[in-house]
Design brief:
This protein is mostly helical. 69% of the residues lie in helices and 0% in strands.
């Protein structure tokens, strides 16, 4: 029974992380093809249930707010997962994305140094560059 409970928590966390990615991708007002591709690639890694994937399509039409996502985060580990997944999906050169990440880091109560390290990790090896103003909660 404890294995089942752990699986359920993992599935909920995977869905929450995916919802955070959608919200980050929509920070500039729309989700472009490259952002969709990064979201779907991450979803394939997460082994989400078919119903959860369908729910994400609905989420793309009406993304969750940062506050709605942050209230479901109950650990620093999950906060880090939510943040790095959000950073993975956005264009770090877009000021709206940087602003979204700043607000997300603040809502998740992430230390500034950790948020910056998560950004560096997310964007390492990426052709995109980090934003002028890294996340500063």
């Amino acid at each position: 029974p404890s294995d089942i409970a752990q699986f359920d928590v993992g599935q909920r966390n995977a869905l929450l992380v995916a919802r955070a990615m959608v919200a980050a991708a929509a920070a500039d007002g729309h989700i472009d093809a490259a952002e969709q591709q990064r979201i779907f690639a991450k979803l394939d890694e997460g082994n989400l249930a078919h119903a959860d994937k369908a729910a994400l399509f609905d989420e793309m039409r009406n993304p969750s707010s940062i506050a709605a996502i942050a209230t479901q985060v109950d650990s620093l580990g999950l906060a880090s997962d939510v943040y790095i997944a959000s950073a993975l999906v956005v264009d770090p050169q877009d000021r709206r994305a940087a602003w979204h990440l700043e607000r997300l880091a603040s809502a998740l109560h992430l230390p500034v140094d950790l948020a910056r390290e998560l950004e560096r990790t997310a964007w390492s090896g990426d052709q995109r560059t980090t934003p002028e103003h890294p996340a500063t909660p």
